[in-house]
Amino acid sequence: MIENIEQAIRGIFSHKMRSFLTMLGVIIGIAAIMAIVSIVEGTSKKLEKSLVGAGNNVVTVSLSDDWGAYDYSQGIPAGVPKVSSDAISQIDNLDGVEGVTAFRMRQDWNGIYYKNIVCNNVVINGIDSSYFTSLQYKVTSGRDFTDEEYRSFDKVCIVTQQVVDSLFDSENPLGKIIEISGEPFRIIGVATDINNPPVTDYEDINDYYNQQYSGGSSNAIVFIPKETWPIVYEFDEPESVAIKVQDTEKMVSTGNDAAGILNGYLSNSTLQYKSLNSADSSNELKTITNAITVLLVSIASLSLLVGGIGVMNIMLVSVTERTREIGLKKALGAKRRNILAQFLTESAVLTGVGGILGVVIGLILAKIISVVLSMEFAISFPWIIISVVFSLVIGVIFGVGPANRAAKLNPIEALRRE
Question: What distances in angstroms separate CA 319 from CA 11, 24, 341, 392, one per listed residue?
Fold first, then answer.
């Protein structure tokens, strides 16, 4: 086998131009496949990252009824206990979980106020001491809540930079009083999501105003201690659970497992905890992108058919050129399988080299396209292996005919040919 490979490589270099033209169809086909896969997978990963957990791999499990998310304005229904420390511990022990916390959340459509300035569409989160560490928030200015503030009813809050930009412009927000549902809260800190920092560049002026002043950013958040929740909304509400997962691929299963644990504590048959994140949409996105990838790859593979035909043609020429050589080898005792293996190896090496060159050219082409068109680029190692193996298979399939013809030659007739 090694001798056949060495002989095939020598044959490629002895007829460089002919070998290159023979491999050209394979190179173009593999390059097209790699370029398509790299761009599609890069774009898919970007969409998946923005779709699932806002790029943070956070899955939220919340109480739901038959109509969807439970209406928290009704308070805590019968048969729904507070999320216990035992339940949190069980979820924290699930495979791939990096952190878990129970919290309350409201979308405050009326906005929060500082003097006569309003920040609309703000998320209010009632949190415990594990929230920031579990979801990887960092207090970048001011301080975190103290243990006493988490337990007491002090009206203090921590805000994100989007809230600061909307309400205070260049003014220092620390110590300022803002109104949440008419209740005064003193800002003690500014927090930032480590994995999803604030947007600092905008597509245009409209994007800037949408992000900063209309409250359109989902990152406009005010954090208050969970114990002070009844002060703002006048009663306790069911808690949701946020889970930080190591791998995006595990978000669906982890969310479902966590919901199952929480549902085990319910005695209300009309309600249940459900995973309320976009992981299912991510799976749909994967299905769509996989279908698109298969379609485009199938179209690009047509050029491999042309390349395979070219390989078959050259191998037939090679058999004709080396008829006397084949006859001599048979006369010296070479068996049919030896001749068959020799020509199949030559064909596979020819297309295999073309496949490797196609992979390199395809990745370079995909990188250029991603830079020029501002698209995402990703290297798919499985597809690299698939492409090279596929090119080898093309060589074997289209080399069978010529190799079989060479193997069937009568040694006496072969030696007679000029």
Answer: 13, 21, 13, 20
